[in-house]
Amino acid sequence: MATIQLPRNKERSSKLLSGTQQLSKVWPIFGDMLSFTLTAFVELMDHGIVSWDTFSVAFIKKIASFVNKSAIDISILQRSLAILESMVLNSHDLYQKVAQEITIGQLIPHLQGTDQEIQTYTIAVINALFLKAPDERRQEMANILAQKQLRYIILTHVIRAQRAINNEMAHQLYVLQVLTFNLLEDRMMTKMDPQDQAQRDIIFELRRIAFDAELEPNNSSGSMEKRKSMYTRDYKKLGFINHVNPAMDFTQTPPGMLALDNMLYFAKHHQDAYIRIVLENSSREDKHECPFGRSSIELTKMLCEILKVGELPSETCNDFHPMFFTHDRSFEEFFCICIQLLNKTWKEMRATSEDFNKVMQVVKEQVMRALTTKPSSLDQFKSKLQNLSYTEILKIRQSERMNQEDFQSRPILELKEKIQPEILELIKQQRLNRLVEGTCFRKLNARRRQDKFWYCRLSPNHKVLHYGDLEESPQGEVPHDSLQDKLPVADIKAVVTGKDCPHMKEKGALKQNKEVLELAFSILYDSNCQLNFIAPDKHEYCIWTDGLNALLGKDMLSDLTRNDLDTLLSMEIKLRLLDLENIQIPDAPPPIPKEPSNYDFVYDCN
């Protein structure tokens, strides 16, 4: 990512910041001037010249007052929200002060408006407060969000609004989704205490709901042994691994107590389905019964892995799922749908206990394929799963396998080897053409993604990289002459990626983010000079690293190149073998036929 070097004159910066605070006192007389000043202030602070901790409480109160006003200029509101977000993310002390001045209730009206940019900044502030809240306050804040019906307001006024969701809004919704699911981490990493009676009572409740058991009188002769035997039998029917003391099944983390929470939710809120699954399996032969307890524990663990519960949100990801905003207990409902899917798939596979891991793999594939379609509701997700039966998964796998295995005979492999250099040259030219078109990169910092851009493109003769800052995201290509900086390709010494990049070695939030590391690359040139990039997505990362390596005469090693090579090779071979369709290709050449008995024959070409 290209950086602008500013003089680090703290005295001059302090004067500007002091002026900003003074201007805020005379608003609205200087309404337009205040808007421009706040814009300059945001730009200045993004360069890290002055510490956020230098601001007075009075300044924070003034900025907060702009957000709390019902009628305020849009540009002032936007900049004020951006400043509050930065304060929260960059200073623990300021988080405390901002949290005292701004409440969720005061932010919600901004979500109910029609300006998507204001909605985006508002959700960004909520995310910042959520992210920086102490552990003991996060659940409290989540409860406040539920009371204020934040989820329903976002669903109605943002997700289902009659307009497309832009990338920045999608990113903020993704962050909110991740932070919400991360509230489950504590339960996910909590082991069950086999001696805790309250926790043991949950298991008793699962048994009671499933079998509607009546308590036997405690003073009956021999009742204790009889009850133990009955409990052991019922716990086996419930599918626990430890029939005598099922509490031991929940001592592994993850998923810990979260699995038991899900089971109890399913038993109470989908009681008919729960009873049907338990009784249905308890009446089957032992070898074909689907163990509900073990399945629930492994399924909870799998869903946590899919949703990356406990991981920090990525700075670049936009992958939010609308269906998780349609229910206050979306994770639990997600589990309830998937546990019924697991039971259905188990029956379709006619599985036994030895097939448990195979069933889980199929279920994971079903869930992942359904999620990629981005269903808008949990009902739609359930409908997608109905179309992904075990039979359908087998068909998909068979189709994919045939595409992989059709061309493994020796003659085909030889043909592949012959035409591969042509395909690689084609891919190389495509990468270089894309570099000539150029790419718009976002500027990132520890605060969050910015609406600041810079553009980089390769000259048509492949000898110079042109780059420079932009005021806004461009529509189409940016001309070379509008990009003020140049870097001759001949001066490039190396291209480094990930942790080897200079801007990933600096202190800050970006360094700790795995997904940002996977999108980072740098061009090293001259002595201690570099041009730093963070690609907008994995595809652009592959395009640029491949193209730069091609310019330096190195191999293109990205996943995209491998996929393109496989696809183009497959297509080329199919085209060349078109006349041999449905004819089996032998592994070895056919034998040379015997010589004819005589050569008294003529072929008439007319």
Give your account of this protein's structure.
With 606 residues, the chain is α+β, with helices and mostly antiparallel strands. It is 56% helix and 7% strand. The strands form two sheets. A four-stranded antiparallel beta sheet has the order 1-2-3-4. The protein has a three-stranded antiparallel beta sheet with strand order 5-6-7. Helix 17 crosses helix 18. It is flat, with a radius of gyration of 31 Å. Mean pLDDT is 86; it is low at 1-9 and 213-221.
Strand order within the widest sheet? 1-2-3-4
Q: What radius of gyration results from the CA coordinates?
A: 31 Å
N-to-C terminal Cα separation, in Å? Answer: 71 Å
Total number of β-strand segments?
A: 7
- Tally the helices: what do you get? 25
Q: Main sheet?
A: 4 strands, antiparallel
Task: List segments where confidence is low: pLDDT < 50 over at least 5 consecutive residues.
Answer: 1-9, 213-221
- Derived from helix and strand composition plus strand pairing, the structural class reads alpha+beta
Q: What average pLDDT do the residues reach?
A: 86
Shape: flat
| Percent of residues in beta strands | 5-15%
Query: Percent of residues in helical segments?
Result: 55-70%
Protein name: Engulfment and cell motility protein 1 isoform X2
Organism: Cricetulus griseus
Pfam family, one: ELMO_ARM
Domain ELMO: 198-371
